[in-house]
Amino acid sequence: MFIVTILLALANISGIGGGGLIIPIAISNFGFPTREAIAVSNSTIFLGGVARFFLYSIYEKHPHNENKMVIDHSITSIMIPMVLVGSYMGVMLNVLLPEVALAIILTLLLAYLTYSTTNKGLKLWAIETVDNKRGPSYKESEEELEKEGEQMSLIEKPTPKKRKGKSEDISEDAENGIKKPENTP
To answer: Which residue from 16, 32, 59, 85 could staple onto 37, CB 3.0 to 4.6 Å apart?
Structure first.
């Protein structure tokens, strides 16, 4: 039981929830039927997510902007509707399919997720190994930094405020009482 707790804690910390661990353990070690193991898995993942949020994530700030939380609400607003539809479809399949079909689907899904996660982990490990060999003096090019900056949706980029008059371009300095004619740099 202690090993299960450690594995679930590591899964929760890494952000994967642990459903791939909970369902097989609930079926093999505790004798749960497949449907009940899925329900136990869902409730465990939910409670683990709530605990992680209130004990850790609520205090964590964005690495580039201390005034924002680490949660990107624009991504969550896109993901939540898809998660709800997927959950509804999963409940319907859980009711309609026999336990053998559920076990086969879960096994295939777990095998695919293990394969894809392992490949992604190996690719990231290879990239980090190359970066570590370059040493701390390695600097990324400005183009890579700009591209990374554009991908970070939480970082606010200042946009210049310009208002055009009849013969003058009045910039932000107009708020301070300074006017710049169009032809001055």
So the answer is: 32
> Regarding beta strands 163-164 and 180-181, do their DSSP bridges make them parallel or antiparallel, or are they unpaired?
unpaired
How far CA 164 is from CA of 167, 176, 181, in Å, comes to 8, 16, 10
Residue type (1 letter), 16: I
pLDDT in the model for residue 135: 65
What value does the mean pLDDT take over residues 174-182? 50
Judge contact between 32 and 41, C-beta under 8 A: no
Ranges of each domain in the chain: 2-134
Separation between Cα atoms, residue 72 and residue 59, nearest integer Å: 14
Beta bridge partners of 164: 169
Q: What is the pLDDT of residues 103-112, one digit of tens each?
A: 899 889 889 9
Q: How far apart are CA 176 and CA 178, in angstroms?
A: 6
**C-beta of residue 64 within 8 angstroms of C-beta of residue 145:** no
